[in-house]
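Much of the work behind modern protein science is quiet bookkeeping, done one molecule at a time. The fold becomes a row of whole numbers, each drawn from a learned catalogue of backbone shapes. The protein below has been through that process, and both of its lines are reproduced in full.
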Amino acid sequence: MIFNEAVTTTTRTMIVPKVYDTVTNGTPGLMTFLQTAKDWKTGTKFEFPIKFQDTTNGGNTGVADKLDTDRQNVRVKASFEVKMATKPVVVADIETTLNAGDEQIVDLLDTEFDSQAQSLMNVMGQNLYTGNGAGNEWDSLANAADDGTNYATYGGLSRSTYSSWAGYYIASTGSLTLAKLATAYDETTVGVDNPNMIFTTKALWSVYESLLTPTVQANYNTSGYPRMNAFGVAPNNAGHGGDNGFVYLSYRGTSLVKDEQVPAGKVFLTNTKNFGMKGVSIKAKNITVSNFKKTSDAVPSGVPGNVPSTKGFNFREMMSPVDQLAEVGHLIYAGNFISTNSRLQGQMTGVTA
């Protein structure tokens, strides 16, 4: 409908005081690891020993036999470097001046902060599932759950030398079947330690749902309808409804989670006790541990937007550059995604319907 100037010059347009996020992906896997992040307190590297083989000394012994005292080395040290990811928060002085008073719709600085924080989460989601650990790249589930096919080393250790340091990896999986999923699950289970989270794409989540559908038994009850009245109209009756599909899926009691950041054709089987985020809370002037500003119903549920302050999420406060009429801050994630036992991590690639 087109209004003439008699109306448009005397009436404002309706602007909703919210910013609706149509870009940021939902990533429950990332939020799982960020909300359970552990401290990387100090030290230039995160290191820990692993046992890479069993000893061959000792064993059964007889009466007064000489005991085997051969000392054998079966441990080696894995080493990970700290990584960082940033997004700038920039507002011009003239903009903050004009974005005030009765003419303000939403606070410019808060909105820019939240927008860039969500963008940083997109970067972190990519780091979680695709990082290769080289240079400034973060380590990830991709190189933790690998058998040496794509990543010959992990945590500075060669997987050909230390075979127990390999994760489960299958390339060109093809059609997803319960048998293939069972193999992957068994290969990433040691003792009673099994995967406690499985992350995949929305498309493959639906494929798995279709594998379960034939096993669902439905019961249908029938009842008679009253006869039509003298005018040929049936009296009012309750309508029949139907329901199909699942809102929650699991395999052997392990949640199967659809995550929009998981690359196409991949399924990750993860033991979160042995994989997670190690966060660095930067201690420096003008840098604070940060958080998203507020809840917003303009952001879809399940999309990063209102989470507890997580270790490794930092904000360098707004500063004025000497050559710019603006204020600049930086959102910073610091730490790394680290697995302390890669044989409990697995991935299936090239998975199809």
